[in-house]
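Thread: quick sanity check before group meeting

JM: Hey all, I'm pulling together slides for Thursday and realized we never actually wrote out the predicted structure for the chain we discussed last week. Dropping the sequence here so it's in one place. If anyone has concerns about the input, flag it before I start.
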Amino acid sequence: MTGMGLYLVIVIAVIIALWILLYFVPIGLWFQSLLSGVRVPLLQLVFMRWRKVPPSIIVNSLIEGKKAGISLQRNDLEAHYLAGGHVEKVVHALVSAEKANLDLDFKTATAIDLAGRDVFLAVQMSVNPKVIDTPPVTAVAKDGIQMIAKARVTVRANIRQLVGGAGEETVLARVGEGIVSSIGSANSHKDVLEKPDTISKLVLNKGLDAGTAFEILSIDIADIDIGKNIGAALQMDQANADKNIAQAKAEERRAMAVATEQEMKAKAQEARAKVIEAEAEIPKAMAEAFRNGNLGVMDYYRMKNIQADTEMRESIAGPAVKHEPGKTDDKKR
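JM (edit): ok, ran it. Output follows.
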């Protein structure tokens, strides 16, 4: 190795060693904190490296708090970082709250941050209220006309309710429920169109922000449209249902009548069979009467004459009987 090459190797080794030294011993950061009035021992900055805590985040947060007149403890910031919190957002929120004269301490801010909420954004929402547009809410007035309303809800973050309070979705759901209830209590859709502000007043009086992380400042009806005539549609459906029921009942009665007719025909056929059966017993009875001497020949001829006279009168009084070709009359036989 030449002298020039050896010199280059030594320079690179010195640079790497210096970079490692400055990484574990952030002298520049220590000097920055010293000039800012924040006393952080250099040894503690080295320990932060070993504790996997970025010294720059802790020192810059202490400097920001010092300049804003907020007293912060290094151990508290390190503990919040190790707990998975966002130290910079917490300090930004404390500074913003201090400037806006909001009551927010370090313990509350870290609790909000560890709860998964953006504490800095919450402070900004406390200063500058947020406007939330509700999705179209469909409701029906008492006269059966459907109304479609859109509302704008102006909310402000309630810092005291951010931990454990319901979120934005709950506020929107409650506002939608209040709009449906208000429109549903109106006697006519014309009343809603004439005075849409009555909806917002009724909704606001219900205290929908109870238990939420927000304070509802105002509810404004941005748009309201007329939908379908739900009352008429329901009446038509009811009429069709009544018609179908009546048709079913009529069909049931017709089927019952047909069944009754068939039953009566069967009974009549049964009665005729019994008559024929009884008539079949007459010759036997006459034969028995002849054998027992209860019927004479003259009695038999008188009965036959009466029977012939009866058939003659029936043939004269009744309709003409059509005789089919090739068939003879049973009476003549």
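AS: nice. The mean pLDDT is 85. The first strand starts at residue 130 and ends at 133.
JM: adding both to the slides.
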